[in-house]
## 1
Amino acid sequence: MSETKLPLYGDLADPTPKISVRGLDFFYGNHQALYANDLDIAPNRVTAVIGPSGCGKSTHLRVYNRIFELYRDQQAKGEVLLNGESIFAPSVKLLELRRRIGMIFQKPTPFPMSVYENVAYGIRLHYTVAKSELDGRVEEALKGAALWEEVRDLLNRPGTALSGGQQQRLCIARAIAVEPEVLLMDEPTSAIDPIATAKIEELVEGLKGRYTLVIVTHNMQQAARISDFTAFFFKGYIIEFGETKQIFTNPKNKKTEEYITGRFG
Amino acid sequence: MKKASNTRRRELTDLTMRLVSGAASLIGIFFLVWILWTVAKNGLAAFNYDFFTALPTPPGIEGGGLANAIVGTLLITAMAALIGVPLGLFTGVYLAEFGKNTRFGGMVRFTINITMGIPSIIVGLFVYTLLVLPFKHFSAYAGAVSLAIIMLPVVARTTEDMLGLVPNALRESALAIGMPRWRAIVSILFRSARSGLLTGILLAVARVSGETAPLLFTAMNSPYWMKGLAEPTANLTVTIFNYAMSPFDDWKTLAWGASLLIMVTVLGVNLFARTLLREKTR
């Protein structure tokens, strides 16, 4: 869409990117949803993905852990590198890829089991651990998701019995329990109340030292508050990418400016 | 503009519709209650200790019960469930999870729908030629197979429907922590849909426990305790068929008792299944 080449993360900061996307096209059947996406995701930082509804933000994110492959009519073309290695390479073990790249969804989706089991399930899936060690790991994951104090006496309750905000943090605990490198968050606060949202934003702040975070959000203030880098999506194209401060104070593209000042979207 | 007469005609049509549909449901209910009442009244007369514990007696000899038929029906139904439920369950899994938009999945779904409409007597005849004629004897397992064939499509369709109700987000979040597909299905989706799945299975069991025609050609009937699965086996529905047509009054009473027993069991299973489903939707 734009003739001038967009700056990539590599042009803005030093370390090699955690994830590099090059020339990514995406199709729902015959409908193309993403066009030639290029994007670098900074390690141990928060990258926000913003843009109007239906512009391919979630679609873009869902390529990283290849979750879109669940649907037969969806197809991705192009390259996505995790630590410099293609996630589509035949040698990549899909289950291991998904352990390394966790995902949080728009609506909290606790498994139909106890709070404890929700977290323990993934640990048992990927690691062989003794019961005593498992308890410790579950506690650690729940602490990591800032949920431990609230659920330490409710570990045997069903996960669905928690409040919406707690359920979402349970999903975060479940994701970090398997020791991922990247956490993908697809509008993680759009289905929960403002106070719970504030808690999750605070949590994201705490998580970014240990994990690489990519967060899709409709909330402009949220992107400005919690992210280090921002990518602006429009109609399947990445229109602008840069440091969050620059995107929000001095956007280079007119569309970006119109969107963040609320003139459309 | 003849507005007034128009309104009146509409009101009249409305009233007629109400009366017709009200009357139709009253007639339906009337016959249902009549059947229930008749079966209950006549059946209760047969219920005594002997009915549940004794073997049938030859005509003319007092007493006797249907213990062998009760055991036979339970056994044949259990065996049918053992065959039909896993096959139906996994067919449903295929339809909902793997073959959703595939040509083969569509073919399977179509076949399942057709199978559901096959008259049960044809299933009985089919199994008769398949498992009775070649072995030259009626058997409990032939009965079980024919009931299983009737159960399979029912279980498959409810499984597909119930798994279809599980939100995709749950499927995705299971896969997103690196769960293999089969594990996501068995430990997350089955668990999430468990009351619905159980309801489907129970309704399928209730459905076949009243079937007569498929057993007439397969398990047949017997006045004795069964000696093995390869023997003609007593069962309640064929007993009803035989005894109700007989000229002996005590046999007729036993047939009423068997009818009541089946009716109460099916009703109980249905009620239980619906409670389960209500719990799920709550």
## 2
Amino acid sequence: MTTLLFENVRLIDPASGLDEPGRLLVKDGRIAGRDRAGAEGAPEAAAVIDGGGAVLCPGLVDMRVEIGEPGHEYRETVSSASRAAFAGGVTSVAVLPTGTPAIDDPAMVRLLCSRGQAADTVSLLPYGALTKGCRGEELAEIGLLAEAGAVAFTDGAKAVGPARLMRQALTYARAFDAMVVQHPEEPSLAGAGCATDGELAVRLGLPGIPTAAEAIMIARDIRLAELTKGRLHFGHVSTAEGVELIRQAKARGLNVTCDTAPPYFDLNETAIGNFRTWSKLSPPLRPEADRQAVCAGLADGTIDAIASDHTPRDADDKRLPFAQAAAGGTGLATLLAITLARVHDGTLGLSDALALMTSRPARLLRSAAGTLATGALADLCLFAPDRIWQIIAKDLPGQAHNTPFDGRAVEGKVLGTWKAGVRVFGDAP
Amino acid sequence: MTESSSSLTHSASQTSGQTYGNGSDESRAFVPSSRHLLGIQGLHPSRIEPILDLAESYVLMNRSRKTPRDLLRGRTLINLFFEDSTRTRTSFELAGKRLGADVVNMSVAQSSVNKGETLLDTAATLNAMRADLLVIRHSQSGAPALLARKVDACVINAGDGTHEHPTQALLDALTIRRHFGQIGGLTVAICGDVSHSRVARSNIHLLTSVGARVRVIGPPTLVPGAISALGVEVFHSMEEGLRDADVVMMLRLQKERMASGQIPSMREFFRFFGLDRRRLALAKPGALVMHPGPMNRGVEIDSRVADSDQSAIQEQVEMGVAVRMAVIDRLIRAGQN
């Protein structure tokens, strides 16, 4: 089969701590070896790719992605999501189970896994529904779903409200060493709120959600994790108080982890401006102090991963009065570029930032992806960390264009993406 | 101005020097436009005073029944009411007709919206009909702003959700100004369900921007904690909040507030937050009593107060027509330039 040699690249492999100029050899879709810069010679018949000094790192592992399939293909399909992912350097995505129907049957997990094996499709790591139909009433078949390949269990952007149900989920999931992912928002307190409680919500006359809704849910579930010894993960953590509670839980040695998403460390609530529905997210954007606390949580390691929280929505879902508009923003194509903003402003080192999108989420999901180790699948991302471009919603790849970052100038552009050694994005050299 | 709070001026976009929102229609930054009246927030006092002055002249013309009926000849004003409101709709209708416009009332019951036509489809339809002015009332905060981005007509917000009701604030300001000669320096107490009141928000923006001292009084469940960031003083006791007030502005209490558990009962609300003669006596002698209507007698206001000499409630209705004439007049003229 084919042999590829990446030359003149800065190799960064957060899993092993590698960060140096070098060369990477790919054979038959797998990483065959690497050496330092300046090494001479190439295997016979190797196609040489000159990276021009750009960074070559593992393809990104995005641990929180919604795809319109099944049931909402008008929003996005596996194939359009793949185009967006590859353009963003993402090669593996953990897919939320909140389609219609919900992914609560082992056959659907197998279907998604197999679709992700196609050469032109991003690798799909399906979440299983935590409760049947993601209705929050009775547990889904966690064992069977795990056996079929579900990487973790969640009801997506719907919090598990009843404490008793959450206790059961955390307890039962232990039998399969399965991770339970919670949407950290106390639903009865959040109610119909669509913005963070505070001055801006009052000015706009929008029903608010207090940041305490996140803190209460996180505090409760940390206590339940302590009670049950279950594996608990919080998705898209967005408040100072939430980050602090998780920091303390980790300090106490509890098995609690979390991720956040670019909007929560790059935007604050003012982005909703004059009822701008493209910035309507769940959880809602927060005041500036919370954004800064999320940055601090990334810097000190409290936050384990950065996920895009990709939530495709149709223009008709968004062109409504604010409270009626759908929440969520796309993020696959912009995950790396927005995260690099925190590298350029000194919040994160480059290798640490990449770890948050490769090795660390891969470890949480028990996936073999996210590494440059010899023998690993050659899922790769080549990017120029300083190249400037502007995010223009309508020009982004993929079917849905509801990014909250429309108009944002960013530094850091993906030049090429490879899945199992096959180039899936960028111009062939 | 109302934009006094510093907590809203910090954003990630500003700290990192990025420019957002140039890419598409949906995300274009909001610029207060002179073509529409969507809210009082962001409106400079220098643009408020001329509206009130013009409204004064319309008060006189209305009383003498001599209004410039050729001013808006050939112009079309559409009242687009997604929420029922007899008085505001009638007030706009009269205002338009007294200036000579063709006035069309469209009562869009919520049910027909639920049948599938979206607000923006409605907007496109009205645009095709070449309306000059759209007066919109909607149950959702921000609906007029959404509409304004999609139509060529001037849009007047006649009340959106719990956001703003700018013509109400203007007519209240006119009523107060006529009574006291000026607004600056007065103490105005706004009482009742502040949380869900667009009237309260618009009045707070207007009154604070022209130099009045504004107090809000209500049970803590109906007064959002962050309201003080709008430059008002918060009270949870009528006895304390009404002391030495020049103006007492009552808000309508919606029955839903009981269902949602924000207050236990009407009678408890009236007992602690209703305006009766005893409480009114705590305000300045001769204090002005106002209410945007329709009133719930015996819930937020006692009939003897509502019907007393101190009540400006009927005058508010009269000022409403004049103020709306002034607003329509100014928007149409601004559109001509």
